[in-house]
Amino acid sequence: MRHRPRRKSRPATPRQADPIEVRVERFGARGDGIARGPEGPLYIPDTVPGDRAIVLPGATRGDGRAATLREVLESGPGRVTPPCAHADRCGGCTLQHASGDLIAAMKRDQLAEALARKGLPADIVAPTVSVPAGSRRRLRLSALRLAAGTVLGFNERASGKVIDVRECPVARRELTDLFPALRDLIGGLECLGRGADVQVTLSDTGVEILLIPTSGGDPSLDERQDLVDFAERHDIARIGWETDGIAEPLVARRTPRTVFAGVPVDLPIGGFLQPSREGQEILTRLVLQGVPDNAPTVADLYAGCGSFAVPLSKRGANVVAVEGSEAAVAALRRGAAGLRLQAECRDLARDPLGVTELNRFQAVVFDPPRAGAAAQAETLAQSAVPRIVAVSCNPATLARDLRSLVDGGYTLDSAVPVDQFTWSGHVEAVAVLSRPV
Hints:
The chain is an alpha/beta fold. The protein has 3 domains: 20-79, CATH 2.40.50.140; 105-132 and 275-434, Rossmann fold, CATH 3.40.50.150; 138-254, CATH 2.40.50.1070. Helices cover 23% and strands 32% of the residues. It has 10 helices and 22 strands. It has helices at residues 100-117, 173-176, 179-187, 221-234, 277-290, 309-314, 326-335, 355-358, 374-381, 395-407; strands at residues 20-27, 33-37, 40-44, 52-61, 64-74, 129-130, 138-146, 149-155, 162-164, 195-203, 206-213, 238-243, 246-252, 257-260, 263-266, 297-301, 318-323, 341-345, 363-366, 387-392, 411-419, 428-434. Strands 6-21-22-20-19-16-17-18 form an 8-stranded mixed beta sheet, with helices on both faces. A 7-stranded mixed beta sheet has the order 9-8-7-10-11-12-13. Helix 1 runs parallel beside helix 10 (395-407) and helix 9 runs parallel beside helix 10 (395-407). It is flat. The termini are far apart.
């Protein structure tokens, strides 16, 4: 008996949800408002707690659904008018509709909740310390060279589309004033192909521009001359070009430089710098408060170019700074010549300092990337270092690392959230731990 082949069934098209009225109850980790929906939580951008709104449920997200705001029927406390014309589309800022006090409270709660999820005390979290808008000195822009003209700006929310940005109240004016000229420059660089990422950094000695092409080849001689002319006209300190992760200077009129505790340090091309000077000063102050004044030997792990190591050394400590970037270590060694500071290049994720190495220090500072310092925290937990100061831009990995240290016998004494990512869901923190004698 022959059987007919079974016809393949097509997946059912999900039914379009109807708009519903909700009351936003709280912020989520990304800065979205969260409300109760018929199928679980709804995550709603552009809302604040207390908003009564009409929303359209959309795709599944975690244990609930994403939703689109259709109309605010009643504003919650803390809702404000966004200051930027691009606020409704730009993915760089997601919280311009919320007051500064509301954002500060949200970021404190974000850190407290991350600690609580790991069984750590949340009541020790201090109020958020925030930097003002218009202070950001480092931006990474996207540029697209199109037939209709060059687009320069940031990605649209949840999209690969680039918004052509004409203003940015987050950033320093020295950077935003360059946008029109940068747009024209990139439009004329055929070597960039379809486009590039553009990193602009304001150092103490001027602006650095780093071009990272998405495709294309090296600049021609004429294009290199165009870059030189651009740097001269706009007083650019340095223009660099990055290919396959390797950056080289194309125009170097002067070296970008920053100052840590009165010590000038030359920045490697494309090197890391805290997003704002104000944020750097806040983090440095909190680190110095966390390290005892009389600690004779201090390790600064993931030290970068020395934003903590140099001030600690200037205060009187013998500092060992450990960093994975050879360029950053070389810059720190040059800048810190004459200080009681030793810089070492080492990949701490693969080769963390061991217990014996750690036990020669009276204090350890660590400031890892977003992935945290899991391996280093494990060895620190077994050490006898009396004081540890942890700096992080990711509450989740910070809480994980702090849990390791507390399990090793440390006491979590304090945690301070720092907001230098204005109008975004990101938050930094400085935590201090001590080992009871």
